[in-house]
Amino acid sequence: MPKPTPPRIFDLAQIVQTQWQSLTQAAHDHHHAWHTPTLANVGEGIAQVRTVVLRSADPTTRILTCHADSRSPKITQLAQDPCFSWHFYDRDAKVQLRAYGRAWIHQDDALTHQRWRDGAWRSAQCYRTPFAPGAPCTETDLDIDEAVDPATGEEHFVVLACKINMLDWLYLHVEGHRRAQFSWQDAHWQGQWIAP
Ligand SMILES: Cc1cc2nc3c(=O)[nH]c(=O)nc-3n(C[C@H](O)[C@H](O)[C@H](O)COP(=O)(O)O)c2cc1C
How close is the Cα of 101 to the center of ligand 1, in Å? Predict the structure, then answer.
C-alpha cells in the first residue's frame, strides 16, 4: 500500500505557526527529531557548531533556550558576538528549519535556579568538574568522584537564551521543494517564498 502523502501547507502564516508548535513540542519530547539541534556561532574567525538539547521554545517571546557550562567556549564567544543560529532537521517530516537570533545568558538567577531544581542538577557531574569544557585533561581526570558534594556544580550552570528574529523553512517534496523565510518586523512574522 503506498504511503499517504502528508498534507501540504501553502499558507505562510500557518507555516510559521506550525514551526513554532513543532519547536515547543521538540523541547518537551526527547524523541522528537528537533530535540537535539545544532547550535552555531562565529568564534575565533570560524563557524563553531555543536549539538545541544533544546530546553524550551516560546512562540510568544520567540526565545529558544539550551543549557551550558559558563566556562565553555561558546559562552565566552557570546560576549564578543551574540549572533547565534539553530539548525533543526526532521527526516520523517522532510523539514529543515534554521533559526537566527541574538543570545544572552542567565546565571545565578530565578530561571537558572528553577531549571536546576527541575532536573539540570542531574548533569551536576559535568558542571562541577574543575576542568572547563575544552581544557586539556588526562583520560581518567573526569572519572566520577563520589567524594564531591553532589550539590555543587550550579555555579557553572547557565541557560543560553536566544531571541529569534529570522526563520528559514525548507520542505522537501517530490512534487517540488518549498522554502520560505520569515523575519520579525512590526511585531509580526513577515513571510516570503524563496527558491529552495
Ligand atoms: C546529544 C548531545 C547533546 C548535547 N547537549 C548539550 C547541551 O545541551 N549544552 C551544551 O553546552 N553542550 C551539549 N553537548 C555538547 C556540545 O555538543 C559540545 O561538545 C560542548 O558544549 C562544547 O561546545 P563548545 O566548545 O562549542 O562550547 C551535547 C552533545 C551531544 C552529543
Answer: 19
